[in-house]
Protein 1
Amino acid sequence: MKWKKLGRIFDPTRHNLSNGCIEFAQSPQTLVFDDFVRIYFSTRKKDTNGKFLSHISFIDMDKNFEKIIRISANTVIELGDLGSFDEHGIFPINPLKVGDKIVAYTCGWSRRVSVPVETSTGLSTSDDNGSTFKKFGSGPVFSSCLDEPFLVGDSFVRIFDNTYHMWYIFGVRWANYPNEESPARVYKIAHATSNDGILWERDSKQIISDKLNADECQALPSVIKIKDKYHMFFCYRQATGFRKDHNRGYRIGYAWSLDLDKWTRDDNNAGIDVSENGWDSAMLCYPHVFHCNDKVYLLYNGNEFGRFGFGLAVLQDGYND
Amino acid sequence: MIEMFKWKKLGRVFNPQEVKGKNWIHEFAQAPSALIFDKFIRVYFSCRPLPDTNGQYVSYSAYIDLNRENLFDIINIAEQPILKLGDLGAFDEFGTYPVSVIRNGDAIMAYYGGWTRCESVPFNVAIGAAISNDNGQTFNKLGPGPVLSYSPDEPFILSGPKIRKYNGRWYLFYIAGKRWLDNNDKPEPVYQIRMAESKDGLNWTKHNKDIINTKLEENECQASPDVFFHNNRYHMFFCYRYSINYRGKEKGYRLGYAYSDDLIDWVRDDSKAGIDISEEGWDSEMISYPHVLELDNKIYLFYLGNHVGRYGFGLAQLQE
């Protein structure tokens, strides 16, 4: 894989965002329409207690990604009611077309006492071409289970051969580490399948091998089929020190599969790394791969988990498949 | 037609405040659930040590053994809690309450509510499962996560499990939260009775319906859906209360009753429950968390009294 960086295409600090959000445009994910591309992302505002609340917003761009046509002015999806799994944020959102319908899988956040957060995956549907989404129930469609005790989220869903496939992450442990202010989590990528997108089957197995160590955190799997091969981009980091130490922060990893069952990790083939300087010089995270106008694109976040927006890269011809 | 139940109160069986030398049983003996052995009845319950400096409790589950010939004769008390609390961040980090047990071959299975603490609301609960191979003295969890977790129509507070097997199928009666009431920044949950079915006790299919209609108010809270089969019909005793200001006599827990021929459609008829609070004493303000036990051709009812079991549980016997 070889990507050509096209630069940062959206900087949230330069725009007025819905819900009074001011910074962050995290985990960009697309719906490609006939004459524009809608890019959803999570942005943030401060809660009354100073903690962040993540809200979903979007921009529409022309299909050459040269111009922002529209920025959502309204609430795309409401945060959950008191005590709900998505009361304190939705991050990320994964939109997809199913026939002539638009649905989205969301990662809902709610705060805990002994650890900072818990997450689960919600399902929502849109009746207005993706401008707003309504929730399918007030609870999650995909949550913890016997061998996935917490932090189920980052769901990315695609339909291949009439089966829904979900790649997602689940937490394997929370732990206190020296020099960390609050407990740190470790999470891994897993896979589930479904006939209807609502009831899912899973085996609770980590499908992407660790590269750094057993505490490696893997996040946001994004899968694309090119010819007869499946490609997964994700991000990974050390469990601790990742916010400030550039060498311990997120990078983009890569794996491939021929059968959607066995995945071979090959980060050397990810084809993208941090820049020498600029907005993506310290961190690369939350990749999203998609087809548009016969090209394959990669959206991603840079420094500080996307505080300063997202950039775009395009796949160069001649990659090794 | 169903005749009215008529229970004769036999008195309090167990007062946890009288237990010495076990700091994890300081008070409370909640949600009794019984298992029959040759010589004794093992009654599981949930108890609490003193609250921490912030006034917050954890809950453990344990048991006492009662002489089968005399259920007021306590012959043994568990040496230690039957379940460990969960690890950091786990769904059951702060409590394992309540617990419901059932034999499965030579093993004993336990289903329990696991408690975690939240920021905007006080807590959340999901249902865990554990297995015992030492006659129910200790249980090992089947996994670090819950066996029954949240879903679109059951967003939080899955608790109060009651595990049953009928005709080769597993049934789980439990409660699911519907909403949190703000209650002037002191949130209170609303929960009502639900059920799920399973072939193996591990993979559950939820019915996704409230199976007991409300009587007091739309936000009536229901708990402890205890089902037994008798005279060719399924019977359920449960408890119910108002959603707010329920910690006293007026709006606190009472016992309700429903029956069913198919385990799915239930007819509520509290007038047949046949038991109420006493004039005075340990169960004069509320009665809750019923558990029915068929033993030696008699039918008994374990239940909690005032302060939802702070002062233990008592026993009643069905009159012919």
Note: The longest strand of chain A covers residues 163-175.
Protein 2
Amino acid sequence: MTTATLTTPAGRLLALGRAETALLRRNRTALFMALVLPVALIGMVRSVLAGAVERDPGLDLKANLVTSSMGLILLVVVYCNVTTAYTARRGELVLKRLRTGEARDAEILLGTAAPSIALALVQCLLLGVGGAVLLGLRAPANPLLVLIGLVLSAALLTALAALSSVVTRTVESAGITTLPLLLVAQLGSGLLIPLESLPDRIATVCRLLPTTPALQLVRLGWFGTEGTAPATGFAGTWAPAVLPLLLALAWTAAATWATRRWFRWEPRP
Amino acid sequence: MTDTTRPAPAVEARGLHRRYGPAGPSGFEAVRGLDLTVRPGELFALLGTNGAGKTSTLEVVEGLARPTAGEVRVLGLDPYRERAALRPRIGIMLQEGGFPGELTVAETGRCWSGLTTGARAVDEALDLVGLLPRRTVRVKQLSGGERRRLDLAMALLGRPEVLFLDEPSTGLDPEARASVWRLIRDLRARGTTVVLTTHYLEEAEELADRLAIMHHGRVVAGGTVTEVLAAHPARISFELPERSGPHAGLSLPALPGAETTADGRRITLRTQDLQGTLTELLGWAARHRVPLARLDARSASLEEAFLAIAAAETAAPQIGRAA
């Protein structure tokens, strides 16, 4: 019988996260994706959004710019990076080897994703602070809702990354397998085209897409409105948040369930 | 009869089946009704050719996969359903490593140390396998043998009660293999139960207290090395000279207890009494001045036993394939 204290989930997550941080630091492609690409994309987003605002003058360009950039950061830094990380660790048989140890399945997946999630959240925070200082944005109307939106986005995109990695055989092919979701999210979740500027029926469909509701929460929490409707304060943001919150939770739960069901821990024979 | 003085087995498997793919001919049954008992503190070797089902069996016993049918217990626990309780007490080394190439040896150790209850100091574990001088080297720069030793060090990190090693010495050079054998013997001497798979027969002969030979997903022979060998004869082989000139009327003497097969001039004798048969043979050859070319006499070895079993099983009709 062992007398030593058993390892804890937190300790195991820390050990996995620390190793994965070292790996992220040494992976130039991933670092480029995580640090340079979002900055470059923000420039592109700005010009696209400027066009939308011209057509629909009620929209707030700065507000949309900041929340769209957050969405892009989450997509690139969490979704793309984590898909690649899961694919790489699976290919090296690291996931299989880790499963022989004390870490639970969920801990292995979360620990592997942790550095990317942390990096994305820090970037969003910097962007928020930067936006407030440089663009003169007002303080978030409901910071709690912003936080919930960001965390749900990260959780959902991590589960979606796990699912994408199931159909990704090599790190090289991750660029292709992540493309469909990237395109759908950019075009359909209000990142490049504000949902209000779309025809009603299409906008409704877009609001049901997996990546939309969590990002709506960020927008709503920060600006008290997600489009041209008048902004509300802390109390007023909860009512319009109920539906996207439920949808975001449902999508996250569905993606987590699908990951448990279909995730592959070792390469196909 | 139950022997109450005998401690509970460290590993016990009953009627184990493991099937890949769907039922019917499109699936494949890698393990077909396997029974296994490993006593605490013993070194148990699971032998078999490639594809015999060793790794498939081990993965079920380690709790990495659920058996299709049958029961497994490791230290009294279900390795799949009770893995949270079991894992802190066992160490596992897979057939192929699984460490990120971009981490150093020490970083790999630090990560695994955080995942292991009661982990010994990382440097101590690395020192056990002779990797301490390589601690700052990235895993991708290690040789195949060094990677195997890193894998072993990680399996030893938590001072496991039961250690599972899937082909621990494959890919090692002779010197590294000898040192890994020494280490495994050492662990056993300190009471660790070791279950290893190997296709090196000398490894099983050298290390194992007991062994089981697997073939087509079943255990076909088992016991101590001596027990397995007892069922198999020793072998003498040689070549008779041409039956012309001085050896024109040559014929072999009667050799009681020996079974003779001839392949042209090449003669093979199988006998349970190597010394007796060999004495008779050499006496006859001396009396008749018969040179025995390429004379070779050997006791039963695990290799002989193994080849005999593999040949017999392959010749036998395939049963249970469609079950």
Note: DSSP finds twelve helices and no strands in chain A.
